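In the present case, backbone shapes were mapped to integers, as reproduced here:
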Amino acid sequence: MEEPRDGCRGGDARPEPLRVIIADDDALARRTVRDVLQGDGIIVIAEAADGREAVELSLHYKPDIVLMDLVMPGLDGVAATRRITRAAPRVRVVVLTCSEDRNVGLVALRSGASGFLGKSMDLAALPRTLRSVHAGEVAVPRALAAHLVDVVRRMRDDGSGLRPVHSPLTQREWEVLDLLCQGASMDGVADALVLSAETVRSHVKSVTRKLGVRSRREAVDVAQRMRSDMLAEQDARR
């Protein structure tokens, strides 16, 4: 592993190679991706086998990009992405996962990721994609991009997906409630957020307690009223 980088090489006008950290609990997957990236001139400065290690390495080395799997032991990829992007905003995270679920993609992007890619993609295109992300672009499949447009359109009508600024709920609790508002079951929420069913039940219990309601249905109703009030306030200011 290399030392943390403090600046560019003096007197060298050539751009420095992209510096990447790969986070995946599958050693074979890490090696496969590493070989592809290094074969295209990208430097893999470190590898992480779980989310916690990914956070520690990212904050230490300050890479250009972290290539992040979602399902890992201990700290999952979504939580790791959130910690990295909050503590080191210049580090871009691109999620590379087996999941093709659009809701999972939305959660990853909401956590701060600059890209959401499936492991079924042609890995030969990965170096070019990472360079595009480093240049400021967002990397998402066309299906997810279309879904994002659809979400934005629906938000304009009913506020779905909007989160009130003043709310007792945490970011994760809103992620759970957002999915419940979309009609997801408890198992569906667990799958979308890559959480255990027990963890989801704990979040739902916290949501109902903080909102002062006794059921998931009532929590959804409160969330919808909060969003409607926020939209009405915004309209009144125009």
Summary: The domain at 154-237 is CATH 1.10.10.10 (Arc Repressor Mutant, subunit A).
